[in-house]
Every structure is written in structure tokens, then in C-alpha cells.
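S., here's the first fold you wanted:
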Amino acid sequence: MEGIEDKDIEQIFKKIFPFIATRVSESFTHVIKRAHFFVSYNDLCKYIFIMLEDHVSLDEKIKAELEDALRKIYTTSHTPIDARKLTIVDTRAISYAVKLHDFYFGKFFQGDRDIRLRALKWMSDYYLKEGNPIGKGQKGIKEFMDAFGDYIKPQIEWKARQIIDTSVNYLRNAARLRAMQKAKITHYRWDAIGDRLTCPACRSMDGRVFKVRDAIRILDAIEQSEDPAILKELKPIQTTVQKGLSSSLPNRFPPLHPHCRCRVHMETEEITMQTVVERPQGAKDTLEQRELEEFYKALSPKERENRIKAHMGADWLRPERGINSYKEAKNNFKRKYTRHGKEIGAKSEDEFKRFSYQVIKNPDEVYIEVKKGKTFYVFKKDDIIVISNDDFLKIDNMYKVEDFEERWLKGFKRDGIIKIY
């Protein structure tokens, strides 16, 4: 930027450095004390960034001083700088929301084009610029209904929440894809949240890899179209488990359905795990067995690796469905520790947890088994196995097996099983 001198940069640096240095120090102190709770380096990094974003946001006094300094630079350089908002926001999504206009609202709103455009602008300001949360219990629904409820049919809160959650997630993912295109990133990964609210359809998409250019073609078609009905063809709603090659699936990026919380992430082609799809000796030739093999053979090696690594985020205490599910998960963990802690060599519950995370992180072998409609990943290291529920990313058990092939592979009843690593 022409017109900016070293003294200008030094002036800004002196204003904000003491504040930022203190907050960064506080953030890292907080994270380091809790570092031993994290099963993977990636999860630790994500937590560090969250803490930095939370602690390093500038307060109003610093913002005012910084804005004043930037205004002086602006006057000198004649380059437009917007310093009114110095918070961490998804500006890519805001920009794309402006381009998208009222397309997505055409499916939900009864109002005319101008009303839909106003609603989209309100949503961009409230959720994307101001960073207010979406999801159940959000405060924005009341404000949204007060402003636009007359144009929603029927006039009920869940419909408003469906419009908000689905539209905001669509805009954010579309914006990320546009940013990847600009950065010349070639592939992206579908990332499901992986908690008890994640549906089977979204779970079946987790870890799949797609080409950015294919998604951009769909975005361009949506953006250029004046017919909202075409959305059903370009981005059909999917509520069933998705099978087959990723390149043949009808929906290439989130949301997959109303209330979908999935997101896209940049993906590299580097493969660190050499996956396979093998039927272990003794496995029965059942319909479930063939479907299991077919599903994972349709995935690329990178997609299979992504699904294995997703279990690095699995947790003993992650609740399944139901009011008392967290309590049940906690009681289950205590039972497993009491029964198997001594044989594993764990002297405490925390050590028992750490052992399980270490097995998942660095397994010798990985199997996938299906029992009564549920899918489990089985991580084996030496003579210890950890069983993780793939539907909820919840660790169910860990124990020692002395004769793995005879006692576990052949001795347990199941509907299907494959070796994947």
C-alpha cells in the first residue's frame, strides 16, 4: 500500500502489541495445562486456535485507537480500509451471500424477491458478520420471526430455525469452496460433526473427497439460475445412507438435508495409511458382509484413511441418543475400567482412557464389523483391542485378547467384518 511508512506500522504495533502479547500468553497457559487430554495433534491445534480467537479479540478501547491510526493511514494512502469491524468473521460467506441474492430463500419464502433479499441480508449481518450461533436454543429465531415471520408458511419456530441453520451452513460452505478455488486448492473433504446428532446419511459422507472444480460448477449453475426449483436438481436433499463412488453421488457439498451441520475442509492427496478391504478368514458370506465390502471398496484410499482418523476424536463419554445417555456412557466407562483396567495395566481411569487413545492413534491393524445394524471400528495394537462405535464416534470397550484370530475373529458372532488396515 503506497503512502505507508515504517513509523505508521510502528505506531500501530505499539498500540496493540502489549494487549495481544498478554492475551496470547494467557491462551497458551490455559491450553498447555490441558494438552494431555488431547488424543491427536490436530485436535490440540484446533483448540489452540479457538482459544486464541476467544482471547485475542480486541476490546473496544484498542479498536478505537487502532481505527484512528488506520484512518490516518487511509487519508495518506487514499486506499479504502474498513476498520469498523475487527472481529474474526467469515467474510468469505458474507461476500458470497451478497452474490447469491435470494436464490436459496426462493424455496421457503412466500414473500417477493425484495423480501427474500432483505431476509438474506439480515441473516448475513446477524449470523455471519456478528458471529451469533445457529442451532437449537439460538436467540436469533425470535428476532427473525418478528421481522420475517409473516412470510414463512407455516409460522412456526422449527421452520424458521430450518431456514436459518440450512441457509447459513450453505453460505459458509459455498464461500469456503470459492476461497479454495481462488487459492488453487484442487480437492476438499466432507466433514461430518460426528456426535449423537449426526444422522446416518451425513456419517456415510464423512471423509469423502471431492474435486473443487466439480463443486464450483454446481455453485455457478445455482448462482446464475433464476429458477429456485433447479436447486432440487443441482443439490437434491438426501436423507438416506449414500453408497458408491463419491464422484457418482448427487450431492457434492453440504448441506445434505435441512439442519445439516456438515462442512467442507481443504484436502491434500498425501496418504499416510495404506488401507485395504479384505475379508478375514472365517467371515460368513452374508448380505451384510457383501454390502460392507462394497461400501468401503467404493471409497478411495484417502477416504478410507479419513474415516479411520475420524475415530481419533472418539470419546468414552460421548452420549448416544436419549435423556440419560451421558449417564449411561459414564457408567459404561466405569464398568469397563473395573473389568479390564488391571489386565491392560492402567492404574487409574485417566490412564485407562489414555491407553485407549494411544491404540486408536497408532494401531497395528484396524477392522470394521457390523452387528445388529450398528458399525464398529476395532483398533488392535499388540494384544489389546479398542472398539469404537462409528455411528457416534464413541468408544465402547477396550480389553486384552490373547488369541486374537481364534477367540475374536472366529469366536464372535457378527453380521459382517472386514480388515481395512
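And the second, which I think is the more interesting of the pair:
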Amino acid sequence: MTGTNLHFPKPFEKPHKAQKVICLGWQKTGTSTLIRALRTMGYKSNKCVTYQTHLAYGRVNLNHVLEFVALNDSVSDFPFPLLYREIDEHFSGCRFILTTRDPCEWQESFEKHAHRLTNGKIDETIYGFNPKSVADNTHLAQQACDRFMAHNQEIIRYFEGRQGDLLVWDLTANAEWGPLCDFLNEPQPEEPFPWTNKAPSAPFSSTLKTLLNKVKGR
């Protein structure tokens, strides 16, 4: 990969935890909630929003991305969900969390918020088109949802046989400390789980359930 001129932020504090947590979920799956929860648990957690507008997959300086991961206990949002293989190979003992959501709900949320996405080329790389085009061509939302599902299935297959390394978590259906703390072997905080704007969730899709059961060895 070749580099771009990144305004790369370097946090002043060193990581606090021995294990790193990498969030692999797409937008509109509760990634901001997950970061807030991890911070409450004492993880130095950061999203890449401070420089993600400078990134386009295929032009990312991978060393910069890995450095950002090294400087934090947890990272979330793009480009990290696209680089899970590289992160997995570079850092031993990482825990990965795939935040997901019922595909129909995700697509509906994407259609509502697509016009707000402003990450330029990286959004076009993720979805295969400029999200702002959804308003004029609604079938593109289905295309985005297909990519969302393919991403989830790809990750579940990648971690097949590594049950302890991946948590697949539908936050819209189960926003509480238990799944996260059990997965990371951490005590539950006294504070309420920091979930906001929770909406009812449809049943978890049968396709993802089948793939997840394979990961769990069922």
C-alpha cells in the first residue's frame, strides 16, 4: 500500500490494557456506544474520525494504521474493519468485536443517514458508490446492505474455530454489560451501560446465526 499525507494524531497516554480490542462493525451498528462502554471499563479507546477523511482503502499507509492501533487499547470505525487480517497478523492476542444488526433495520438506518456521510473516497470504497446518491437511486441502499452482510459473513468465516477471539454482538437487541465483560473477562462497571437511542430489534438474521454457530462449534 502507498501512503497519503495524513494528519495523524498521536495520543499522549500509553495504552492501559494488556489486550487490544478491535471493533469490526460497520456504521450504524452501535460502534460509538461500544467505544463509550470500553472507555468506561478503562480502555483507551479511539475512533479514527480525526483522520479517516484522508484515507481510501488501497492508499492507506498501513504502518500509520498499525501505529494508531499500537497507541490505543481499542479502535473502532473505518478503516479498521477493512484491515482486520493485517491487524490480526501484526498484534497477537487481540480480541475482535463485530457489532451487527438486523439487515433490514441497518438498511433503513442507512437510507435515513446516508446523506450525512462525508468521508468521500473511503465511503465509495466501502459501499461501491457515493452514499449521497441514495436519495436519487434507492436501490443503492440494497447494494449497501448486501455489502454489509457480506462483510459480516466474511469476518465470521475468518474467525471460524477461534471462538474466544470474536464476539458477534447485536447491540440493538442486547445492550448490557454482560456480553462485553464476559468476553473480555472484565468486571462489570457500576455505571449503567451507555446505550442511547435504542430501538426495538428484529430477530437476528438466520444466515448470520448459522455462521455464528459454526464459529462456536455448534
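Why I say that: The beta strands are 21-23, 45-47, 74-76, 95-100, 166-170. The radius of gyration is 17 Å.

Talk tomorrow,
H.
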